[in-house]
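Interim report to the steering committee. The following record documents the input for Hydroxymethylbilane synthase (525 residues).
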Amino acid sequence: MSRLIRIGTRDSQLAMWQAKTVQSQLEQLGHKSVLVPVKSTGDIVLDKPLYELGITGIFTKTLDIAMLNGDIDIAVHSLKDVPTVLPKGIVQAAVLKRGNINDTLVFKKNEEFLSQRDAVIATGSLRRRAQWLNRYPTHTVTDLRGNVNSRLEKLENNDWNAAIFAAAGLGRLGIKPENAINLHWMIPAPAQGAVMVAALEEDEEIRTICAEINHRETEICTSIEREFLNHLEGGCTAPIGAICYINKEEEVNFKGILLSKDGTRKIEVTKVVPLGKHDNLAEFCADYIIGKGGKTLIDQLQRSDKTTNIYSTKTLTEAQLELFHRDVVAESNDAIKISLNRIPKSVVRNEIKNVVITSQNAVEALLTNFSAPELQFKNIYCVGRRTKRMIEKRIGKVAHMASNAKKLAEHLVEFIEGTEVTYFCSDLRLDDLPNILTENHIKVNEVEAYQTKYDAIKVEQNLDGIMFYSPSTIESFLKQNKANGIAFCIGETTANIARKYFEDVRVAKVPTVESVIELVNEYYA
């Protein structure tokens, strides 16, 4: 044909290789073309990791504009850099046969550092960073940007052990480092190793030409990977990996992964379906990831640039984190650690008429030391619905439950059988219950069932509020931090202590973590 196809490309060495490969395949089919190099934002800004730039399609945006302006006919991209949703008017016209999908570790001396506690690995990829730290949590990962050659030079000139590269990039540039291994365990980026050609949707002539160089198997596999990425709402700012291939039995094999930025959390999915029945594969796998806690993880990733405004002195579950108002960025950590004590058998040798249990920790301590049949308790009195539920499920019926220790003591003063109780408590228990009972001539036999150890961390941010679940969580938190913001408390006993330090104290309607979260949400609503 007489039309000259203008091929738009970034002007990096690797991008030029990709464009020349497309040009060669087109010219072998009799189509004339010319290369039109364009510099992208991703090539210009080299002092920040990609995930910090926050631009969708950082390596493709400039070429998209050039094509929409009519300056080029097609654009050639590394498919892993292309946003999963293309700009209006632009379509994927072809995908070349895929190259090496692996990530490669290039190291300076030897591989001994892999078994050592301390090592420094360089990469600008959040996905590679997260997977490396998941496998080697004690290592340090430092940022590395630039083209392949400049990154290799930085590795040589810095005190690093190794750096991670895309195997396809090294191979296409003819670079074969002496010290390098493929990281077969590392899940690549969706569509890694594939070259994509974009064209204008309205240009049917160009699209027909590009279809001649399309590799169908690569198209199927990379489309599944990118659809998986799209369903997870990920991009450069999320550590998401995916790989799909078709085996000799014509089965479509898929593996996907989502991680936290620091690699401490990882959710994986693997699925095999027959070729031709793969239309819903990506959606199924993405939904699986989301159902296993991926939604919470993604929400945290999307809000990671925001400042934490609520701190919980108890580690929250994924289900609990999902309950927060959209404006809440919550951080949680256990402010106290519980150590169960050894309780002498003589304590429970005979039936105990009246037993007082004010926490689930005391229940755990009892059941760690004794079997349920050994616990011959006639009347069990407890604090909290969950403690009651736990006792009745694992020990026996509860005679009375109160919302806090003071109310339980007041009930015992009026209704107790006899004049003596055995109180299974912590070493840091409050005085309310034993004092009230003693003042009313009821003997209290205290058994230290567990120890409460302060283990709060220092919180650097200025917080809107802190969630407290017991007086000891307050004491622990204040050993490391100042009393600023609102104290969201699980009950009155905790609130009474909080009022000594906080001006604004709010109390949950019922003594549950979920109710404290509801209290926080009411503030933001």
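The chain has a mean pLDDT of 90. The committee is asked to note this result when reviewing the revised timeline.
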